[in-house]
Amino acid sequence: MSTALTGPAKQIGEQLALGSNIYFNKINKENGINGQSIDLILADDGYEPKNTVVNTREFLFDRKIHAIFGSMGTPTAHAIKPLLDRHRIPFLMPFTGADFLHNSSMPNVFNLRASYQDEAIEQINYFVKERKHEKIGLMIQADEFGYMVENNLVNALKIHGIKPVEVARFKRNSDDISKALALLKESKASAICLVGTYEPLAEFINSANKQNFNPDYTSVSFVSSHDLYQRVKQPANIMVTEVVPDPNNCKNPWCKQFIEDIEPYHTSANRIIFEGYLNAVALVSAAQKCPTPLNNQCLLTELNRLFTDTSDFADLFNTHTAGNNKKIYRSYFKSN
Q1: Beta carbons within 8 Å of 208's beta carbon, 6+ residues apart
Q2: I need a surface site. Which of 113, 124, 204, 230 has the fewest CB within 10 A?
Q3: pLDDT tens across 302-333, in order?
């Protein structure tokens, strides 16, 4: 698992790893997977693609791993795509909804979370149909993550015959949002889709309020709504599209099990930790159905079967609606 354990996005990586290890530790205490323990090897990339390449090469050539699991980010995943294509190592439950990981050209990829296309459609429908906005701007992290979500947002706007009034950008792993704020304020956007991590987006929202600029906001789930909301200190109306439910307000049996399993760790439950936990549940469930030693094709086959059943686990993610098989949830921050 190559993820951010340092830098301004480290809370996302730390919480994903914690959630996965909560379940893996539980399974290891119960004799592991067919008698074999699970070793989650963590490597810090600071959410910088060049570091992810170094980590991935070490995983493949030195550590002889079975799979790359729970890695964080679109630019980081994009950077290692040539390695993934060449070695066909299973790339499981990446923390991204990037388009290139959601098509048949990469059969070694398994996604648990919804795509950014699904999240973009939900956000634009919210702005246009529910909030009745027409002047919508975009505030975009300037990298592969930002460009991919931007493309999906623009396409979702086209469905309603709308173009963004402004597209402003900022640098990854920085909170220098002043130019983007000036452009979007000048555009008089009444609503803004935010694409980035929690620190720069919170800085944007707080700074905009201080300048008497108060549009409605949305963000994709990658932001970590838990960490974003903690940092918003000014009145704001924010909707974040989510790919898992809030485990604190969820009746699904896996939510209840997660709350029980996290209790000894003395930390508050949130969606990011829960997603890491569910990633581990999926991996263990599939691996337990495969013979030892673990076979990559068996693992991927069993993972894909998770979405074809009607279990409590599948119900967390399946919409059971034609044309879209992944649920989108919402969280809100409202303050006046």
Answers
A1: 181, 184, 185, 214, 215
A2: 230
A3: 999 988 877 899 999 987 554 456 899 999 99
